[in-house]
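Hey, sorry to bother you again with one of my protein questions. A protein chain has come my way and I'm curious about its shape. I'm sending you its amino acid sequence along with the backbone structure tokens. I owe you a coffee for this, so here goes:
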Amino acid sequence: MAKLVPLLIVGAGPFGLAMSAHARRAGVEHVVVGKPMEFWKTHMPQHMVLRSACDWHYDPSDEDTIERYLQTKNLKPNDVEPLALEFYLGYCDWFQQKNAIETVLARVHALNLTHDASTCFEATLEDGKTMIAPKRGRRGRFSLLHERAGTVSSVVSGWPVRSYLRFCRFRSR
């Protein structure tokens, strides 16, 4: 049986975690599907440094910033810039814990737009379980946020990847 969720966030990387924190603060019930920071942990060079500095972060409320994380470690920006991958992943873990972000540790195998009585997004996970999110959530906004197209093996037919990749949401055309 499919699980109905008001907001489905596909991907648990930086943008998926940021969207989850934002939804939680806005009081929007949601589910995040993905393994937190998996792409960064498995595909980035071990000694990589980010081009971003400590003033960049992905907390839309400016509360759980990299600067705030530095304070918990008694560090200054000069101590960690340029940001090493290991440091950044530590910040991401802290951000996830601080915002109590829980994820469904799975990948979305297929994502479809149903056209029955109520148009919905239907996400089939790799284990065969299904989650359904209404196409339009509160205030008419889309109820599916997608962090990156690479986590989905089949996408909504007829909708180009560029319409949602890197924007963390579907956009109507």
